Amino acid sequence: MFDVQTALDGASFDGAVRVAELTGQGMISLRGDLGDATLRDAVSALTGHDIPAPLHAAWSGEVTTVWMSPDELLILLPYADAAGAARDLQGKLAGTHALVHDMSDARSLFRLTGPALRDTLAKLTPADVSPAGLPVGMARRTRLAQVPGAFFLRDAQTADLVCFRSVARYVFDLLKTAADPAGRVGYFEGFPEP
Amino acid sequence: MTRYSAFAIAREAFRQHKGWDRAWENPEPRKSYDVIIVGGGGHGLATAYHLGKNHGITNVAVLEKGWLGGGNTGRNTTIIRSNYLQDPSAALYEKSRSLYETMSQDLNYNVMFSPRGVMMLAQTEHEVRGYKRTAHANALQGVTTEWINAKRVKELCPIMNIDGPRYPVLGALWQARAGTARHDAVAWGYARACSAMGMHIIQKCEVTGITSQDGRVTGVTTNRGDIGCKKMGIVVAGHSGALAEMAGFRLPIESVALQALVSEPIKPCMDVVVMANTVHGYMSQSDKGEMVIGGGTDGYNNYTQRGSFHHIEETVRALVETFPMISRLKMLRQWGGIVDVTGDRSPILSKTPLDGCFINCGWGTGGFKATPGSGWAMAELMAKGHSPLTDAFGLERFREGRFIDESVAAGVAH
Amino acid sequence: MLTLQCPYCGVQCDETELTAGGEAHLTRHGPGSDADTFEQYLFLRENPRGVHFERWRHAHGCGKWFHAARSTTTLRVFGTYKAQTTEPPQQIRDAISAVHPGWSWRNFGETA
Amino acid sequence: MSLRLSTGGRLIDRTTPVSFRFNGRHLKGVKGDTLASALLANDQMLMGRSFKYHRPRGVMAAGPEEPNALMGVGRGERFEPNQRATQQPLTGGLTAQSQNHWPSLEFDVGAINARLSRFLPAGFYYKTFLFPRPAWKHVFEPVIRQSAGLGRPPEGPDPDRYEHFNVNVDIAIVGGGIAGLQAALIAGRAGKTVLLMEQTAQWGGRAPVDGDLIDGGPAQAWIDAAVADLAAMENVQMRRETMGAGVYDHGYLLAHETLSHGVPEGPRQRLWRIRAGHIVTATGAIERPIPFAGNDVPGVMLASAVRDFVVNYGVAPGKRTVIATNNDDAYRTALALLYAGLSVPLIVDARPEVTGALPEQARARGVRIEAGTAIAKVKGGKRVEGVALCAQDGEGAVTEEVVCDAVAMSGGWSPVPHLWSHCGGKNTWDAAQAHFAPDPDRAPTGADGSAFVTAVGAAAGTLQGDVALGSATARIAALVDVSADAPAVEVAAEAPLAACWMMPARASYELRSKMFLDFQNDVKVSDVQLAAQEGFVSVEHTKRYTTLGMATDQGKLSNINGLAILAQELGEEIPNVGTTTFRPPYAPISMASIAGEARGEIFQPLRRTPMHDWHEAHGATWEPVGHWRRPYAFPRSGESVHDAVQREVKNTRQNVGLLDASTLGKIIVKGPDAARFMDMLYTNMMSTLKPGKCRYGLMCNENGFLVDDGVVARLDEDTFLCHTTTGGADRIHAHMEEWLQTEWWDWKVFTLNATEQFAQIAVVGPKARDLLHSLGGMDLSKDALPFMGWVDGTIAGIPARVFRISFSGELSFEVAVPANRGRALWDKLVEAGEALGVMPYGTEALHIMRAEKGFIMIGDETDGTVIPQDLGLDWAISKKKDDFIGKRGQQRSFLAADDRWRLVGLETLDGSVLPDGAYAVAEGTNANGQRNMQGRVTSSYHSPTLGRGIAMALVERGPERIGEVVNFAMTDGSEVPARICSPVFFDPNGEKQDV
Ligand SMILES: Cc1cc2nc3c(=O)[nH]c(=O)nc-3n(C[C@H](O)[C@H](O)[C@H](O)COP(=O)(O)OP(=O)(O)OC[C@H]3O[C@@H](n4cnc5c(N)ncnc54)[C@H](O)[C@@H]3O)c2cc1C
Ligand SMILES: NC(=O)c1ccc[n+]([C@@H]2O[C@H](COP(=O)([O-])OP(=O)(O)OC[C@H]3O[C@@H](n4cnc5c(N)ncnc54)[C@H](O)[C@@H]3O)[C@@H](O)[C@H]2O)c1
Ligand SMILES: Cc1cc2nc3c(=O)[nH]c(=O)nc-3n(C[C@H](O)[C@H](O)[C@H](O)COP(=O)(O)O)c2cc1C
Ligand SMILES: [Zn+2]
């Protein structure tokens, strides 16, 4: 896979939070009736866990499923597995009205780690990122400054954030500026996690 | 009416300014008038003025629900230009611009028309083509405009960053005789001139209903009683939908908030009006020194005269990029107006399904510049039933598909 | 700066996460419709000072179109509901009636 | 003279001197000073010049309401005009300059205006400068403009950084005085998330200065305890130097935080966008000046400001201060001055009788109090030298003169109603206190129709400490539904004030024309009266005619006095006259803070394709398309852009060229109803397209106008891949979703915008096939992949989908690969293509090649008013379909007319290139005197292939007029003849692309 080159080649930055582009990340978009039993089974078989509740992410092993809309899921899995998994899923859903597509290259994924996580996000998004508004496991699709983006917390100090590939540099630069240690806000750091 | 002049001021200076009379009278409404104009904004007043001046019709009342000029006339960024693309627009706006040139003298009221020049920046190839096209059209329409290069842009407006890393300025469409005017003075000057002709300017008089007989308008009901008329002009901008409903028809119009802001005043540093459409912002400096900045429209119907703050952010962001020096300048005040936007974003000057009732609306974000021309044309339409300047702006154009679409040349319409 | 709740995902959306889509409950008229009807459909708009039914899209979110009943003068929101319907739900109509008895909007409203 | 006292100053640290420069002079203050207090300590009473008359002005207030002491602060790129000296903390090395004078503050030529002021009343400019007409533009306006403005413009570019911060809270409290603190304590204890903000650097507001006793101790002790309690609550956040700037609909609160007054390490300012369940305004009250003649002479100040300077900064505005008042509160200033060892020779009280507890204390200390008395006139020019007295109930006949060097005035207090009012909160007139106060029954209402702002403390009209805490306690307890007790506050009982809108009550014109209402904009009592006389009787007219309240302080000191004068003049009650509209921001905020982080690289998102870096490294000149940047051309060193484009075209036609087509939209449409949906979306019949095949399609809007085009590939029976224009991808995807969700929601179709999943490279030219074959992996022969077909496979080891489509007329393949492998494929093509003469080409070469072939370009041939029929694309409009989006629109009379302007080609007779956008003229003029037109150029290029100018144009009945010569007008008035021809200039039979 020597010629697989993500948008930022795995760039990272250490500030009030650590920001790193994850390489080797694959993604599958699935649109379909999330209540459909065939679909649910097929997805669970692939991911190893149940379809997450609305506005949530669920994960097990190397696979994470993010609820994107009432009829859309985003499945995160190793890049090398994505194309094959998409084909398999497509196959299982042959008789079902659903759209499966390997989107591993369409988006960039950043991992944010550190206690200033919520403060950093709050500089960029209008979404409520307080512990009550964004508990661990909840996934929000929203706006990051001037582009669409989505994020969820894996734990109190770790968030995964996705954006479109073409704006990866912009989002990385935004995060870098927001996570500048000299711009510490200290707002959410005091907030209790519920 | 006391004539205004430097001499009159000197005279009054020595008698404690006791000799100035009311700029316009404050009469009680009569039972009926030949013509009622609903709406005491610039367009309504200009219509009344030209009914009298050009057509000798002076038994006219202008009914204003609040204070004169308190609608969009009193809250716009005052850009006056006529470099429009389509023939009917160019004709109307150029007529208007030329009337602005002599308005102060015509009205004996200094409206401070300042032909300092308006430039519309081209920051993409697409805009370059659009503006060159407009320049070509203008040359045939009798509108003097010019395509200028980036160097000339910088000479005319030294505070601009033409090498913006993101959108370098590629040139501009320049109209040297375009500019700004003192918006309130336009309303006041017209009101004074109308009043001098014997017309009635009636404020705090809200039209709440329109009466008709056999499909012909007969008058209005207002909070100050019923008033009869032979003809009526509805000139209420953002409130056109409500008035049309009273008259029994519907319009291709939605009313939305448009915002503007001013900075604190600073010493003169910008002598032209700049519109930057790629980044969405425009700015000029008033005679008092504030930077006058126009924002964007909300996407939703709204009558509150307040808008959403993110439009202010977008505009200011664009202008800080274009004029980096305003970064440390402070915003003094922001406000909103309710603009009436039509299906093709061009105005409506038209007869209506109700006989004797005419409508002038749909100026949206850009009708201040049209004030005198619109009044001129509307008066002609109302007096004669037809005007070459209004022909293309009839209500029927939507069903015919005959749009007058100005956005095609890349622009917003301020 | 409006906030509207998306009826699909439940998010309390900031206005900047939404795009506005104009009047709701328009009936499409295509080939074969007469000039009046077509003009009505494409151009002639409700523009009330008061309750308005309008369309929004949760664009920076779940991507779904929904409808809102909102006052254009107070900006009060009487409710939001999914777009896959040709008329506003009763409970929203009731909420409007509680505040604006006798209201009407196109074919809907109270026949007082 | 003003001076530093030897004792006192609760906010300063006398042991730490701070040096600064004012107008070039080196001065010293101490830590904790504001610029204003430090200047006063240096006896710098004169701090600026007024806007219109250039009158000498000193500091008048101690907070954001200050109208006069505006300074230019900082140097070079960090220079900032119009900073209020009262809010500028003194930092080491600070440089400040006074404003609006020439050549110097002391001697200002512009002050001539003050002498001419009788000729310059309100609105004088509307009445003059009328003749001769050209003189306005060339003489009068330039002169007026030269005198405009206050500070000098900043220089920029601003080296500092700014940011935004978004929070959601249950309750946001603006104002950290005792009322705000109490509100926060109650809400915090009730478990609400609370954000408490205070614009100054101190908690506590006026109480410590006014000497309130709370819970039996000094206010400061209670404040310290409250702050400690709040700091310990996890659900409460506290921010100082954070100003509530504006209240917007649905509980949106904007706040502005100052992080640095000097050279910041991080951001300089932060703009808070707060979504609050409820907003509490605890913003206190502002004292009103009294209109008397000479109330603007430096040394005349608000009584509370005098008190602030003495108590907070240990600075005395004067040694002998006369106090003018109509209320008891001003006596606190007298007492503070006495306590500091200063002299108060006289208190002038407009009330006929003066009895309260505070006056008694002053009397007991031997202060002379004159009841029913007024200041007839303040003596002095650049500083106060004395006052002349008269009876309040008279015309101003002077009874006595008193020597003094400062005057402290108080006309009573007005709540700060701005934030309450921004979003529609209404105020009622309180006659007893002579002010407007928020009416809790007419609060701003939010999304659910209920009130979302509550005013408490002095901001609610409950001015004194006891009632201020009382209202804060009662209202917030009710709001959060708890019970709470207010702490006990001991304050001196105050006797009622007597409204005093003018001193003396029946002042002569001479005096009224020296009584300032709006200090910064030089609006006097006589100006408001003139406005009323001339019929500008609406308060909004008066404001606009006189500019009252339009200065940088937005009338914080002047509005109430102004409208009281107006009411008096009209014989109306004050509430009938009403206030002007309150608008954000509360006090001015920097443009930079509004723009936030969006500057430099992150001004806007810049979308990059996987090959972006390669283009950059190879000298691409860019063309912005939406947020993308596409290479316009790849000039080599020494080559002009024009030459590069010509080379790129030639090379592509002769050898092989590479185009980065990744930005084209790629939308997948799938489902049992996909074909049916595609037939509605496109004007063409798409349902008949066979899997494995491509078709060029057109999309219109409901009006019938062409909005996008692109190649559609059918992937399988129920799946289509739609290519859109670069600018169209997001728009068209949204358009599809809109129709699916809101019109045909029962159709079984899913869409997915897969634009960024793929990098797409167009390999174009006679050697294109050779190049691709040289990479190995796929058979792309004519038989294996015929024209308008597509096939999946692997090229150079990379999974690829290859489309055989051509936008140039050449043999052409578009190769789509996963985006993360796009760069690798590009590199391989460049490397392998070297021998074949491969060159990249940009958008301009693309444009020229398509124009040589007569292919239309959305945005060039279309402009939102063009229908496909105009472009000769009737073949792409299915006649068999009953309906598609836009079909009905196209049937309207104007669109169906046969004299529409239609697409043709043009050849100039001399081979020259027609200018883009030129119009073809026709005979005569229209009814408005405009030259008639019969067409226009839509695209025009020098064709390197044909060696001459070619153009596409829309001409009236164009296709019927092939061979005819029409004239195109140049902007200089000349005309260029051109012959109408077919728009297909090159390879009309399409032989080159189909090999
Ligand atoms: C922020 C902003 C910036 C703008 N910038 C520009 C610009 O730079 N250049 C430009 O050319 N244009 C600009 N415009 C547009 C321009 O202001 C308007 O098009 C123009 O002023 C409209 O004038 P009018 O007389 O038609 O309407 P208005 O001035 O709005 O007058 C209509 C009047 O009708 C009255 N009325 C309403 N209903 C009733 C009733 N029932 N009974 C009696 N009276 C009633 C209203 O009170 C109002 O006074 C801007 C607009 C805004 C809001
Ligand atoms: N006796 C009188 O006539 C009289 C009159 C007025 C005030 N007072 C005194 O006022 C005090 C009342 O307490 P209070 O808390 O209501 O008022 P306060 O004036 O003590 O506190 C208000 C606080 O709000 C801050 N503030 C104002 N606008 C702001 C904004 N936009 N953003 C952020 N902060 C802002 C101010 O800086 C101040 O600290 C008592 O001490 C009382 O004695 C007395
Ligand atoms: C061209 C122009 C210049 C303005 N300049 C100022 C100004 O210098 N100071 C000010 O306070 N307001 C200024 N305003 C704004 C008005 O105060 C006011 O906000 C606006 O007319 C809308 O009215 P409203 O806020 O009363 O609704 C200006 C408005 C316009 C249209
Ligand atoms: Zn949603």
TrEMBL record, chain A:
Q: Which InterPro entries match?
A: SoxG, TrmE/GcvT-like
Q: Name the domain of life this protein comes from.
A: Bacteria
Name of the molecule in the record: Sarcosine oxidase subunit gamma
Q: What is the lineage of its organism?
A: Bacteria, Pseudomonadati, Pseudomonadota, Alphaproteobacteria, Rhodobacterales
UniProtKB/TrEMBL annotation, chain B:
Q: Does the keyword Zinc apply?
A: no
Q: Gene Ontology cellular component?
A: cytoplasm
* Pfam families per record: DAO
Coiled-coil residue spans: none
Q: Which GO terms describe its molecular function?
A: nucleotide binding; sarcosine oxidase activity
At the top level, the lineage of the source is Bacteria
The chemistry this enzyme catalyses reads: sarcosine + O2 + H2O = formaldehyde + glycine + H2O2; sarcosine + (6S)-5,6,7,8-tetrahydrofolate + O2 = (6R)-5,10-methylene-5,6,7,8-tetrahydrofolate + glycine + H2O2
Cofactor(s) named in the record: FMN; FAD
Q: Which GO terms describe its biological process?
A: tetrahydrofolate metabolic process
Location(s) in or outside the cell: Cytoplasm
Query: Which EC class is the enzyme in?
Result: oxidoreductase
Q: What is its EC number?
A: 1.5.3.24
Q: Which residues form the Rhodanese domain?
A: 35-79
Record key words, sorted: Cytoplasm, FAD, Flavoprotein, FMN, Nucleotide-binding, Oxidoreductase
Family of the protein in this entry: Belongs to the SoxB family.
Q: What is this protein called?
A: Sarcosine oxidase subunit beta
From TrEMBL, chain C:
Classification via Gene3D superfamilies: Folate-binding superfamily
Q: Name one GO molecular function term.
A: sarcosine oxidase activity
GO terms under biological process: tetrahydrofolate metabolic process
So which domain of life are we looking at?
Bacteria
Question: Under what name is this protein listed?
Answer: Sarcosine oxidase subunit delta
Top-level taxonomy: Bacteria, Pseudomonadati, Pseudomonadota, Alphaproteobacteria, Rhodobacterales
From TrEMBL, chain D:
Its name, as the record gives it, is: Sarcosine oxidase subunit alpha
Task: Using the record's annotation, list all stretches that form the GCVT N-terminal domain.
Answer: 611-881
Signal peptide positions on this chain: none
- UniProt xrefs under InterPro entries: 2Fe-2S-bd_N (IPR042204), FAD/NAD-bd_sf (IPR036188), FAD/NAD-binding_dom (IPR023753), GcvT/YgfZ/DmdA (IPR028896), GcvT/YgfZ_C (IPR029043), GcvT_C (IPR013977), GCVT_N (IPR006222), Sarcosine_oxidase_asu (IPR006277)
Molecular function as annotated in GO = sarcosine oxidase activity
State the source organism's domain of life.
Bacteria
Q: Which Gene3D superfamilies match?
A: 2Fe-2S iron-sulphur cluster binding domain, sarcosine oxidase, alpha subunit, N-terminal domain, FAD/NAD(P)-binding domain, Probable tRNA modification gtpase trme, domain 1
Q: Which UniProt keywords apply?
A: Oxidoreductase
Specify whether Transcription is a keyword of the entry: no
Q: Which family does it belong to?
A: Belongs to the GcvT family.
Annotated ranges, domain FAD/NAD(P)-binding:
170-419
**Claim: Acetylation is one of the keywords in the record:** no
Gene Ontology process terms (BP): tetrahydrofolate metabolic process
What SUPFAM superfamilies would the database entry show? Aminomethyltransferase beta-barrel domain, FAD/NAD(P)-binding domain, Folate-binding domain
> What are the residue boundaries of the Aminomethyltransferase C-terminal domain, all occurrences included?
902-987
Q: Where is the SoxA A3 domain?
A: 513-596
